[in-house]
Amino acid sequence: MTQVRTRPTTRRRSLATVSLAVVLGASALSACASGGSGSGGATAEALSLEGSWTLVSGSGPDGEITPVDGAPITLMVDGEGAVSGKDGCNNIVSTVTVDGDTVTFAPIASTMMACEQPIMDVATAYGSALGAVTTGDLDGEQLVLTGPDIELTYDQA
């Protein structure tokens, strides 16, 4: 007499179903953890300020920050967070820390050159604004740094 074993086959199917459910569940969790794709949300890339930037427009608590012709305002950030550049008149140095979209500049140091008053006014306003930046965003080829009453927009140099 031949005995039919239905239980092990059912058990194998159940094990295969559970395994498939675990794999699909893990894939879904992985997609959620990485931001996923599709209509549910965009994948957020880490903000990087690394590169050379030229200020094209800005505003701070004291008003507009408009670079004077012939006195560009530049910002250079290396891969370690070291910052250098020009405020239109003086060379500047600092460091920057980026955490998500939060941007924090260490106190800005600069040379003490004297320039024509309009350039000095812009340099002073820019230094104050840059030191008060709290967030950043990359908008295509532009870097936008913001803070309370501050918006600094740079083109990639």
UniProtKB/TrEMBL annotation:
Keywords: Signal. Pfam families: META. InterPro entries: DUF306_Meta_HslJ (IPR005184), HslJ-like_sf (IPR038670), Hsp_HslJ-like (IPR053147). Gene3D superfamilies: 2.40.128.270. It comes from the Bacteria. PANTHER family: DUF306 DOMAIN-CONTAINING PROTEIN, HEAT SHOCK PROTEIN HSLJ. This is META domain-containing protein. It comes from Miniimonas arenae.
